[in-house]
Amino acid sequence: MTIPSRSFSGLLAVITDAGGGLTGFRRYIEAARAAALAEPDNAAAWMLLVLIAERFTRERFEEPITVEDSREAFERLRHISGTLDDQFDGGDLGRQLSGLNLAAAILAEMGR
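Given the sequence above, the corresponding structure tokens read:
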């Protein structure tokens, strides 16, 4: 699998290519982990995306998953990935930190 270089949004294709269900989210998690290893300067962002996707798959592991559940989780990742793409563009550390904080806040909200 080719990992798009710092294209947080680009990796979402892994989910859609696998049909948008739990299998796609699991493949996304594997690919995002690989991206974290391949891009150490972006590892924090990739791992926050991993944690968000893992939270969804863990919550849905023992119960049926609906199309709406998958769509909502995908849209959450799409929003965060797009924000990270924007914030990491240009290399401004303040903007990058802002993007990481947004992703972390969304993750924290998911745990409520």
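The mean pLDDT is 88. Try to locate this feature in the token string yourself.
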